[in-house]
Amino acid sequence: MRVSQLLIPTLREVPAEAEVVSHQLLVRAGFIRKTAAGVYTYLPLALRVLKKIEKIVREEMARQGGQEILMPIIQPAELWQESSRWDVYGPELFRLKDRHGRDFCLGPTHEEIITALVRGEVSSYKQLPLLLFQIQNKYRDERRPRFGLMRGREFIMKDLYSFDMDEEGLHTSYQKMYEAYSRVYDRCGLKYRVVEADSGAIGGSDTHEFMVLAASGEATVVYCSSSNCDYAANVERANALYDQESSREEPESKREVYTPSQTTIKDVAVFLGEGREKTIKTLIYKTEDGLVAALVRGDREVNEVKLYNTLGCLQLELADAATIQDVTGAQVGYAGPVGLDMRIVADPEVNNMVNAIAGANKTGYHLVNVNPGRDFKVDTLTDIRMVQAGEPCPRCGSALDEAQGIEVGQIFKLGDKYSRALGAVYLDDKGQEQYIIMGCYGIGVTRTMAASVEQNHDQQGIIWPASIAPFQVVVIPVSTKDEAQVKMAEEIYNKLLQAGVEALIDDRPERAGVKFKDADLVGYPLRITVGSKGVKSGQAEVTERQTGETVMVPQQDIIYKVCDMLEKDV
Ligand code: 9G3
Q1: What topology does CATH give the domain 255-381?
Q2: What b/e sequence results for 293-331 when a residue is b if at least 16 CB atoms lie within 10 Å of its CB, and e otherwise?
């Protein structure tokens, strides 16, 4: 195709509202345009990338026996009421009514629809296992849609659901998807890590996330530094290891100290000449069952996912300043567990502390020589903290390393949660009714495109892996006024097309610099430049986007060189 005829509206300016590099570059390079908050139009280049990712996904799902279907976006409320999720999800669920006043939602996911389908169509064990998937738009009314395609309100997802007779069958299906996902991200040319994750509100047991590694990733993962151990987990999930022995210090008598305007752990520790690990961090949360104080050592962070799972509540948010003032009698920064009248959940590390520092629930004061058990009672003692790099691996004890990642896929064992709620059963070989055992498996297709940009870019623009690049080669005649250059460029371009290479020719009557800049911005893996020198010697420059390396290649060898560089059969 000809660049002159394609809609590739590149921009020199960074769009003001784009916070992350993938959003900036996908807009600047002419891939996407915003239609509404969190809702995007995919222009020709983006659609080509998406189709390539989808093709890889379809091939890998088919390899594992997955069958493609297409379910509706509009879903009736009744099915969501059967699973009780109509009330679980609040404003995040896009709700609508038809002309008769009947309730519907735009599908955020399809567990309900597919379970109802299978309940109607599967009756015997002979029809199992079954792997059904679709690639479709999903809708979630995020509170703050942001980061471009990373957290949109409409996005493309591949969702597969497995139906098995029992846990053993589910395990096999799960392994198949683990393998399929690994192959998908390998083929997309992405560096990723598979981590243990938290199943959150969806319930169920095993779950793994596929994380594309990128410094800008929202998720933090920890992984074992030992080459003999493959432990890796989302920090939200990673279990902490605890020292059994506590300090041998003798408990001393508790005392109040004046700590004017020392409202952070760091300030208080410095002010009192102690390390942060001598302090107790007290965070007050609001839940639908009342207030809860979460205690961790001052050098640790509260892990809200673990806290949420511990409490089993539906709502969890930090209490506001007025509430804190109300319950502690002090300004924010002076809360502590001594004399605090609410449920106290503490991390086990806190229980091992001797002569600790904590807020006095009195503005401008802290307590020293606070001793858990003696000075306050803990209602629930359990792991509620973030694991940090350097801590021991829970599997082998070696030090953990940390990395940032973008979640592009997740696989879940669901068990019988949905089949029980919706009554999806089969008759086993003895004629007994059994619940179908389910798994669900998602790949964020649009997010995978964005994650690839987050991982593969430089100052000049995007660097697409060849397997998902919108086009593989752009041929650029340096001057469109030079007939010899245009002729040679056209010849090379046509040869590439004949060889099955997805090539573009930049035939726009623009300065060479503009075309080079656009080529770097869009991120074609290879650029072939035909200039006046090359025309005289019958050669053209082949430049690799990834390395910037350029070689002069005789015209007749270009197809071989390109196919070689793209690792493609001629
Ligand atoms: C909702 C809303 C948001 C949601 C869900 C439901 C996330 C919801 C979890 C999943 C799990 C899997 C199939 C593919 C793989 C992932 N956000 N989840 O269930 F109503 Cl508003 O979607 N689904």
Answers
A1: YbaK protein (3.90.960)
A2: bbbbbbbbebbbbbbbbbbebeebeebeeeebbebbebe
